[in-house]
Amino acid sequence: MQATLSAAEAATELGITLATLYAYVSRGFLRSIAEPGTRRRRYVAADILALKQRKSVRRDPAQAVGNALHWGLPVLESRITCATDGSLYYRGKDVVALARESTFARVLGLLWCADENAVPPPSELPGGRAAWTAVARAVRGLPPLEAFQVALPIVAAHASNAYDLRPAAVCRAGARIVALLVAVALEREPAADLDVARRLQAAWLPRDRKASALLDAALIVYADNGLSPSTFAARCVASAGSSPYAVVAAGVAALQGAKHGGASERAEALLREAANPGGARRAVADRLRRGEAIPGFGHPLYP
């Protein structure tokens, strides 16, 4: 039988808080085992020893940060998201339950402001119709992520209050930015609400109204992804006192990388290659024969 420690013992041994301990488990650095007859879990002693050895490299900051960014070792504690025991939580609320019962707009309020009713409807785009006309002209023909990168500074240049960094102002800017990015993706003027799923369904699947609920659930489940490269980049830019527009642009820039958002493009290419469920077996077999990975499988942090 493997030697194990309680949560308190493991946290003490590693010199971390319980929240960080759970983050380590969610990232796959520690294994937890159910304690028979209770709801408690115990932590494998060998994993704790190995992690202590890895943590020693933090005495060399350059090496430590490089490893953390590459493998996703939590270097910042978060009160926003927790992944543990196969479940994901936003501020203590189960994400699957939120996807079934809430809306994307309410989840934005929960994530940004710890209040599901806190995000206001987006106000008029800074610069009004003239700014939107300039954006629409500049992004025509560009892929979505590149279009976002072009649109954000154009709108920011018209936002006289872009650097109002009070929490309520940042929340209002966030609502405008979401509305802007949806408009750019759909090549339609920004809406006056944050019913993103309905907008996407009306543009992409106008004959399938049930798709709106599925799109809303997908947006909720993917609304926060821990300390990914794009989140880390955005936090770095935010820490410098930049505007929300610049913060989002930094996150999008990281997301464009082949090792991050590019994974979604590879998954999309596989789906196109398969064309339908009947073609999936052949599409996967062909990729395996060529020695290619199957998008969506084998991720080191999300097995």
Provide an overview of this structure.
- There is one protein chain.
- By secondary structure, the protein is mainly alpha-helical.
- It is built from 15 helices and 6 strands.
- The chain has helices spanning 7-14, 18-26, 45-55, 61-71, 95-101, 104-113, 128-139, 144-158, 167-186, 196-204, 211-221, 229-239, 244-255, 262-274, 280-289; strands spanning 4-5, 32-34, 41-44, 81-84, 87-90, 93-94.
- It has a 3-stranded antiparallel sheet with strand order 1-3-2. Strands 4-5-6 form a 3-stranded antiparallel sheet.
- Strand 5 and strand 6 form a beta hairpin.
- Helix 5 runs antiparallel to helix 11 (211-221), helix 8 runs antiparallel to helix 13 (244-255) and helix 14 crosses helix 15 (280-289).
- The longest helix is centred in the middle third of the chain and has 20 residues, at 167-186.
**Could you state the order of secondary-structure elements as H and E?**
EHHEEHHEEEHHHHHHHHHHH
Question: Percent range for helical residues?
Answer: 55-70%
> Biggest sheet: strands side by side, in what order?
1-3-2
Distance linking N and C termini: 25 Å
Mean pLDDT score: 88
Structural class: mainly alpha
User: Which descriptor suits the 3D outline?
Assistant: globular
Largest sheet: 3 strands, antiparallel
Give the radius of gyration. 22 Å
Uncertain segments of ≥5 residues (pLDDT<50)? none
Q: Count of DSSP helices?
A: 15
Strand proportion, as a percent range, falls in 5-15%
Could you tell me the number of beta strands?
6
